[in-house]
Amino acid sequence: xxxxxxxxxxxxxxxxxxxxxxxxxxxxxxxxxxxxxxxxxxxxxxxxxxxxxxxxxxxxxxxxxxxxxxxxxxxxxxxxxxxxxxxxxxxxxxxxxxxxxxxxxxxxxxxxxxxxxxxxxxxxxxxxxxxxxxxxxxxxxxxxxxxxxxxxxxxxxxxxxxxxxxxxxxxxxxxxxxxxxxxxxxxxxxxxxxxxxxxxxxxxxxxxxxxxxxxxxxxxxxxxxxxxxxxxxxxxxxxxxxxxxxxxxxxxxxxxxxxxxxxxxxxx
Length: 268
Description:
With 268 residues, the chain is of the alpha/beta class. It has one domain: Spore Coat Polysaccharide Biosynthesis Protein SpsA, Chain A, CATH 3.90.550. It contains seven helices and 13 strands. α1 links the parallel β1 (6-15) and β2 (40-46). The radius of gyration is 19 Å and the shape is globular.
């Protein structure tokens, strides 16, 4: 797909307008980090009070969803709850929102962010130093309390025993790359031309694992790349239980080495 784009960054947010103070902090973090530069824009898709008046460097796309969306998981109780909420999502068209944002992006690099993710100072300079040789990139992600949260992630490595959630998700050391990784939809960077050829599946709503499906699909086409020079941080505390810790990788490193030695797997 041939697309004419300017060089720069399109920060694509999906928002439901639930916490304007947190969202404002995220937006300010971008403008502060790009002060004096014009090679960026903010695209905000959803509902927010910030859409009511023009905002600096922002393209606001109002997106009001129906009250309920049927889940692609139908009667399998997607989130394993015993309520009808598992069959329907109130504000769940997250894939559609991100695809809309990407289609409106002016610049060649897209940074997808939920409305509680902010840049730490030096993020832009860090990517300038990192260079341009990547298609899908991740950086360090800190929770509000300063702990790592869903950045450089293994998902289904054959050398790691599946957890009770039926996957082997865990944080990995930043200097290791595998073919079994997962990019969290909360925050990631991607070249626009690559994303337009590999859009999110709009049949998948919030809670349906749209980021897992996308990761598994695109990791067959490109290797995920880690940029050690840039950092983001959540502006609110996210669930600690939802962040797999790197001890899983460490615990199973010996198991991995044995599997390689026995010829059961060929590489990371």
